[in-house]
Write a structure and sequence with these properties.
By secondary structure, the chain is of the alpha/beta class. It contains eleven helices and seven strands.
Length: 297
């Protein structure tokens, strides 16, 4: 989730927030590669207000207590952490890790975790490019991508969290049967992602043009509600790694049309809601189409 989605109050002081909610922020995540579930396990009721990762077993753990979360889930681009916290509340036996590059997002997500009193959620100030340095092979049970920045222009396509090369890096840290789930208000990003999933060797479990109605198990966030008020549909895809892709398959994904403008519907007047970052392109294309129609008549 991009910074454009975040609103801050006038009295917001970033440094103070980061310090106040530091218990839910892991500054050395590379240390726990391959052992997040065990290292961040709470000791009975001893750990509250953000998962605390460490190397020393907790002496306050009750007799018979077996450390370790059964599953580790990554919310990549976690924004203010609303989805992360809602999932962690529903699934206390799993560890939920949020990642974002924006310090404001990290501060809000950490605050959300601490104030909710969760011991199975934590946030990392890192980017998607660091995933293989942070997680070991097969360590993640799932990755969610909730309303990631679509980067519509061709020159920024590699930054998309659903580009073929990012999807290939996810494969290497996903457990067998694990899933990657995208939710977005951008129909072009949804359609582009389908081409990239195929190129990276994923099998699509479901694809939806109305995820809220068809998959209500995903918690609704404040940002999603605002989108709905603006008339946006929520598109979604859930996929799991299939057989390893061939080099030709991967290259086909890299060679696919990278500009999201190419994935817009032909009839631009049928678009009621314009995805983030595509307002100018749609306006220009509409004007061009109308000029061409007027010239033909």
């Amino acid at each position: 989730m991009g910074l454009t989605h975040i609103r801050t109050p006038k009295n917001f002081v970033l440094e103070d927030r980061l310090e106040r909610y530091a218990a839910a922020i892991e500054q050395r995540p590379e240390t726990y590669r391959g052992r997040w579930g065990e290292a961040c396990s709470p000791c009975g009721d001893a750990a509250r207000g953000g998962a605390t990762c460490g190397d020393t077993p907790c002496s306050s753990a009750p007799r018979g207590y077996t450390p370790g979360f059964g599953r580790v889930h990554l919310d990549l681009g976690c924004g203010k952490g609303a989805y992360l916290v809602a999932r962690a509340q529903r699934e206390p036996d799993a560890l939920f890790i949020g990642m974002d590059t924006e310090p404001i997002c990290i501060a809000y997500a950490a605050q959300n975790i601490v104030e909710t009193g969760l011991s199975n959620a934590i946030v990392l100030p890192r980017s998607a490019d660091s995933i293989e340095r942070l997680f070991g092979p097969g360590e993640l049970a799932g990755i969610t991508l909730n309303f990631p920045t679509p980067f519509p222009k061709r020159k920024f396509a590699r930054k998309r969290l659903t580009s073929v090369d990012h999807l290939l890096s996810y494969r290497r840290v996903l457990a067998p049967g694990a899933t990657v789930t995208l939710r977005t208000d951008s129909q072009p990003l949804h359609d582009f992602t389908l081409t990239q999933l195929d190129a990276a060797g994923y099998r699509v479990l479901w694809a939806s043009i109305d995820t809220r109605a068809e998959h209500p198990e995903h918690p609704e966030t404040e940002y999603e509600r605002r989108l709905a008020e603006q008339g946006a549909a929520v598109y979604g895809i859930c996929a799991t790694p299939g057989p390893e892709p061939t080099p030709e398959q991967i290259q086909a994904g890299r060679n696919a049309e990278q500009s999201l403008v190419a994935y817009l519907p032909r009839n631009l007047d049928s678009i009621g809601y314009i995805p983030l970052g595509m307002e100018g392109a749609v306006l220009n294309l509409r004007n061009r189409q109308r000029n061409e129609q007027a010239h033909n008549h």
